[in-house]
Amino acid sequence: MAVKGVGRQNDVSPADRAELERIVAATSSQVRTAQRAQIVFAVARGLTGAEISAAVGCSS
After folding, report:
1. Alpha-carbon distance 13 to 60, whole Å?
2. Please, is 47 exposed, middle or buried when counting C-beta atoms within 10 Å of its C-beta (0-12, 13-18, 19+)?
3. Fewer CB within 10 A of the end CB, N or C, for the chain?
4. CA distances from 14 to 19, 20, 29, 32, 34 (A)
């Protein structure tokens, strides 16, 4: 059951986490790709859409 304002936490495998961290850290990554990786991390932490957009700097 979804509760408004509460994010749903998702697990990210160690391999996926390593790849996402590489993308975020790489200076050669395109901005949109790095933002998407940051969004995946935020979803994995259980942040809400509003929290994610504030943290990543994109619209919800």
Report:
1. 25
2. buried
3. N
4. 9, 10, 20, 22, 18
